[in-house]
Amino acid sequence: MSLTYGIIGCGMMGQEHLRNIALLEGASVAAIYEPDADMRARAAAAVPGARMVDSVADLLEVAEINCLLIASPNFLHLTQLEEIASVRPLPVIVEKPLFTAPEDASRLAALRAAYPAPIWVAMEYRYMPPVAKMIEEADKVTGGIRMLTIREHRFPFLEKVGDWNRFNRNTGGTLVEKCCHFFDLMRHILKSDPVRVMASGGQAVNHLDEVYSGERSDIWDHAYVIVDFASGARAMLELCMFAEGSRYQEEISAVGPKGKIECLVPGPGRFWPEHLGEPPVPQVIVSPRQPQGPVVLEVPVDPQLLDAGDHNGSTFYQHQRFQKAVTAGAPVEVALNDGWWAVAMGLAAQQSAMTGKAVDIASLAYTPG
């Protein structure tokens, strides 16, 4: 069985998906719904054989599609999933975040209970080769993780169609929009659910003077988040979105009684300054307590995959696994509950940072039941 995709939303991330689907054996794109004229034209040029349609409803009428990708703005994801569920519930891969507000949780619960086909939440960071290598080795190296730290020092939010990503009401807030990736990694690496979230964050440097239709951008650009897990492990996120001068964009470390393992991940190659030569190669570093002395392993990424997107090849690997889930009945590795938890943690972190108080996860109504 081949995958024949229908695409909902074909802006910057949607076009990365198009490039990676093109590299996937046994996969094609039959139809695209993208309302913005410029992005629609770019998508048509990238996949000239695809039919351009004018609505989600029109897309679902295209007989040959047998799976869907949703890469529309955040605040549309849940509504579009609900429309798909009511008309033609095909297997779907949906970009993060699943939802953007606490009051959406009951709708998501209803969708989860009734949807008959696989829904895969796009959490690309799991599939970056250096991150995947670190996850594979972490328990053996550490002897059981007790502390996990994720640092992302990166460029500011990019410009999106209609500047939708400049406002918390559209994105869920930076700790949802951007950081749900990292909260998903925390749960995935630690194999445990959160019990308490403490955060501090805000808008310090970026977007301070940006005004759209008379309204100033309120999206945050930095934060610290600490999460206590049921297993007793602790995790911390450090986000800075005015640090594009960094050599590595993501630095992840896990520490336990036996030792430490780290991975270092560069940002998109297209942003690396030419005068600095070749971009850095991703690394995994193993630092045992006995015998002391770090061991550095380079984890290069296929250049073709680097050229296809900004996520170190992970978008391609994610589609490979989605393909196996749809065609061979393999497990959905990032299910609705995973995407739901990632948003719930982000919302709790936003709440903690705004109130100055720790948030007890058990007190929240929007966590998965």
Automatic annotation (TrEMBL):
Please indicate which superkingdom the organism of origin belongs to: Bacteria
Q: Where is the Gfo/Idh/MocA-like oxidoreductase N-terminal domain?
A: 4-117
**Which InterPro entries does this one have?**
Gfo-Idh-MocA_inositol_DH (IPR050424), Gfo/Idh/MocA-like_OxRdtase_C (IPR004104), Gfo/Idh/MocA-like_OxRdtase_N (IPR000683), NAD(P)-bd_dom_sf (IPR036291)
- Please state every residue range assigned to the domain named Gfo/Idh/MocA-like oxidoreductase C-terminal: 143-360
UniProt protein name: Gfo/Idh/MocA family oxidoreductase
User: Whose protein is this, by species?
Assistant: Pannonibacter anstelovis
